Amino acid sequence: MQYQHILIAGQWRAPKNPVGYFNAVNPANKQTLPEVYPVSGQEDVEEAITAGKRAAAELRKVPRERFAQFLEVFADKIQARTDELVDRANLETGLPKESRLRNGELPRTTDQLRQASKAARDRSWCHATIQTSVNIRSMMGPLDGPVSVFGPNNFPFAFNSIAGGDFAAAVAAGNPIIAKANTGHPGTTLIFAQLAFEAVKETGLPPGTLQMIYRTPPELGLQLVSHPDIGASAFTGSKFAGLKLKSAADKAGKPIYLEMSCVNPVFILPGTLKERSDEIAAEMFNSCALGAGQFCTNPGLIVLQKGDSAETFIKTLADTFSSSQPGVLLSPKGPDGLLQAVEVLKAAGAELITGGKTVEGQSYRFANTLLRVDAGTFIGNPHTLQTEAFGTASLIVIADDIWQMKEVASVLEGNLTGCIYSDTQGRDD
């Protein structure tokens, strides 16, 4: 079988004893794409770590200007290949070419790289950060080993493992990279890796500065983040996978930086519903449906105080959910994942209002979904009822009064965002 090559120790080569293979799928038409990508086994991972460890020692002697130049050259190369990158990412993810990829994510990606270049030059990344309340303190390098980067499926450019923010930050701080491509867009990552390696050669960095594999079995991912020779790891993706990686890294005493899925609660107070219920319902749906709901900041939990205004709001929101066309999901796993999450929420006591099923057709879609549960049930089982449904799906929690809304807030897990809607007359204060 002819596999796409991986980048290990400065060489594009075939995998050694791969343990499987996969193809990307176009989610917009369910067509399997022809390129075959390897699932790397132990030999590839160990060789990448060894080469990364060697590169880390070499990079300690490299002036910071060289890292800055690399990041700038890489950004320029990405811009020069914009059309190819946009076409490939659209083919693998179904994301809109112009509004999302060309005019949104790609400029963000090159801007991140150029900001990182500036940070490498002026060493602003060395400024200490200390937050005693959450026990966060800056770690000053060098890390003496490569940084492994795991990218998510929903940002093929801006969070890509070999072009995104984690990558840019690690390189700016003088670290070599082992990038694990996301299986949702391996061809996109391959193009980035080719451009990055060209930039490595042009700026004179050690060839082991950048390495890229497409996929490993889960147990090798755990070994990677906990390996004695790894410097640190960065992960963006599901909470389920992220916590497993964190546990492995923590046990080994290795730093790992994670951005994981969450439900991003929205508290809508009674006064504001009386002022502009329909407007808020429209805002909520637009936020929930952005990118087919496949954003880590998607509002998956809406907390209301019971009453006529709340019921009117729920009906308006449900009508909008049910009458709107669901967006294309990023992968074949999307509908199954949503269905599983909805079933978990229902089993925990949530009632389905609308949606909750796969939409048949030529693309991967799932009906816009809204559920509800009373606050007492939520407070009694907060962990399960904060299960993320990665798509246009939200759970409404109905509280008896403002005090019970506060109880709901007190049992929430960590989230990236939170929002409170209150009225303009001070009645909700």
Gross morphology = globular
How confident is the prediction overall: mean pLDDT?
Answer: 95
Count of DSSP-assigned helices? 13
Strand order of the largest sheet: 16-19-20-15-14-21
Give the distance, in angstroms, between the N- and C-terminal Cα atoms. 66 Å
Domains, number: 2
**Quick one: how many beta strands?**
21
Task: Describe the protein's architecture and organization.
The protein has helices at about 40-60, 65-80, 80-95, 95-120, 165-170, 185-205, 220-225, 240-250, 270-290, 310-325, 335-345, 375-380, 400-410, and strands at about 5-10, 10-15, 20, 25, 30, 35-40, 130, 135, 145-150, 175-180, 210-215, 230-235, 255-260, 265-270, 300-305, 350-355, 360, 365, 370-375, 395-400, 420. The longest helix is centred in the first third of the chain and has 26 residues, at about 95-120. It folds into two domains: about 5-260, Aldehyde Dehydrogenase, Chain A, domain 1, CATH 3.40.605; about 265-420, 3-Layer(aba) Sandwich (Aldehyde Dehydrogenase, Chain A, domain 2). Strand 7 and strand 8 (about 135) form a beta hairpin. The protein has about 425 residues and is α/β, with parallel strands linked by helices. Helix 3 crosses helix 4. The model has no long low-confidence stretch (mean pLDDT about 95).
Spell out the blueprint of helices and strands.
Blueprint: E1 6-8, E2 11-13, E3 20-22, E4 25-26, E5 31-32, E6 37-39, H1 42-59, H2 64-80, H3 82-93, H4 97-122, E7 130-131, E8 136-137, E9 147-150, H5 165-172, E10 177-180, H6 186-203, E11 210-213, H7 218-226, E12 232-237, H8 239-252, E13 256-260, E14 265-268, H9 270-289, E15 301-305, H10 308-323, H11 333-347, E16 351-354, E17 358-359, E18 365-366, E19 369-374, H12 375-380, E20 393-399, H13 402-410, E21 419-421
